[in-house]
Amino acid sequence: MNELFLGIDAGGTHCRARLVDADGNVLGSGRGGPANLTWGIDKAHRAIMAASAEAFAEAGLGRAAMRRTHAGMGIAGADDPAQARKMAARRFGFASVTIRGDAETACIGAHEGRDGGVLILGTGSNGLVRRRGKLERVSGDGFLISDLGSGAVVGHAAARQALAAHQRVIAPSPLTRRIMRRFDNDPSKMRAWAMAATPSHWGELAPLVFACSDKADPVARRLVADAVADVTRLLDRMIALGAKRIALTGGLADAYASRLPRRLARILVPAQRDALSGAIDLARKMVGT
């Protein structure tokens, strides 16, 4: 029986899977929930297995096919070696499993294995520069202390401004009113939600911030200006680390691309392929095919 290859792209919003045959033909794809390792190994493992099962089902293949499948996984949070080891110790049922951070597989796909940089801008933010076999990271250390420009950070900042406007600490705006209406204009409901909110919950507010900014909402415009400044700093650092070309990926990539300084146009390039392709390339390389 021919070998199969499975690519996994697991991030803070969702997990995607793609199953291909030895010739690279796509057999099936799948999708699961959030799979950032920093939010729980068990949760991430379940999401990965759910997305994988969907891909095998779409391909019309049963569990026996898993034993001839080599999996490459790009997982948010796997830049932490301890977290990556914990995930690698889980049972998957594949012939082999290779785990890397999601930025690494995105970079492999974006530049087809060549040197370059990638900045993922989604629920979290994670930048990686690949140059002469060496990897350098910027951001990507989690919502609480890092992830500049991410959806979670932007959404959290917007919620703060909404509550401040509700209490008349700052002038209210359409953005702050819309956010507070989500909680029936009740700070106690907002507080209860915030205590249980994950980064993906905070990130759900980010598209609203960008949309309101486009309508000249003053609070939204300040938030977006701050976020764009943070992303610009990340890109400048990646350039200083030697990146000659950088691909923006993730759910907020397009929102930022149109707002970044024109001087960065010379360095920003479209991704040649996606992170799933990079994960499959990783799996192939590890088994020498």
From TrEMBL:
Pfam families: BcrAD_BadFG. The keyword Kinase applies. This is N-acetylglucosamine kinase. It comes from the Bacteria. One of its GO terms (molecular function) is kinase activity. Gene3D superfamilies: 3.30.420.40. InterPro entries: ATPase_BadF, ATPase_NBD, Euk-type_GlcNAc_Kinase. CDD domains: ASKHA_NBD_GspK-like. The keyword Amino-acid biosynthesis does not apply. Keywords: Kinase, Transferase. Residues 6-257 form the ATPase BadF/BadG/BcrA/BcrD type domain. It comes from Reyranella soli.
